[in-house]
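Archive maintenance. Older records in this collection stored only the sequence; we are now back-filling the structure field for every entry so that each record is complete. The fields below show one back-filled record exactly as it appears after the update. Entries are processed alphabetically, and HEAT repeat protein is next in the queue.

ARCHIVE ENTRY
Title: HEAT repeat protein
Organism field: Actinocorallia herbida
Length field: 310
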Amino acid sequence: MQGISLLPVAGTDPWEKFVGEFAEAPTGWLLEVARTGDPLAARRALAALMDVYPWREDEQTWAESVLRGMITARDRLHPGLLLAVLEVYEDIATPACAPDVLALFRHPEPLIVQLAFDVLEAVGANALAAATLDAALPLIEHTHADVRLAAAALIGGLQDWEGTPVTVPVPRLTGAVTGLLAAPDPAVRRHAARTLVRWDLDGLRADAALAPLLGSPDPELRAAAAERLIRSGDPGAFALLRDELASPGVHWAFVTAAALVADGLPRRLRGDLRRPLKALKDAGWPSLDPADRETRAARLRTALRAVGRW
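Back-filled structure field:
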């Protein structure tokens, strides 16, 4: 599907022009236009609804019902209109939306799938976690890279969902995230590794999953493994980080890892990191990797601050 776009960015000139005379209209009228108007008028009404804040309780309840009804009728909606519905609905979604939003995981338009993820993440109810996990796992092999990465992020974020019942036991959730380390997409593998760096639910399994990555050919995976395992007291991981920092072609991920682990290290070990970091700074390290020099320079400054003067 071509030409599918999100609503204009709120507060911009395109937004003001798009909303136009709809801006001051009553909420009930806007909902009726969204439900019954032509696609353009409906999208303008939905854009105006995004400015309704804070929602009155009665209006929010009615709006949630109307918009959920539109999501239920997804196959009859123009994709651009469905996108606009999801953008508004994300702010007022309730667990009742789960069957219809989960069905959108199979939608052919990648943007709609990603907004469906956002809606369920906004609800964040543990009661929906198992169904969400089951629906998201197959999308790790979606044809669209953004959907693959968004699915990995959704799965990794389930640990923060709240409420009862808890429908995904910790071992299953940890197994799902560690399983992403074997995904075909390198971006998914990297995201999973970064998620596991701070995976406190099942720490020993996270350590065991990341330990083999100390020998990975992917520097981002090696850096993530080193960061996690240094916190677990692994001297081999520390030696790897120190040696990588001393390498002339050091990857930015190791500079970032040094900054993140430094505060928890004894003074002597912090000094072992500061020396190669200072050498990188003196050598003008960002120029060794000309892509995004400013970001890399900032990473190095952060790392040096993190290890202090030792």
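Update note: The radius of gyration is 24 Å. Residues 216 and 222 are 6 Å apart (CA to CA).
Entry marked complete.
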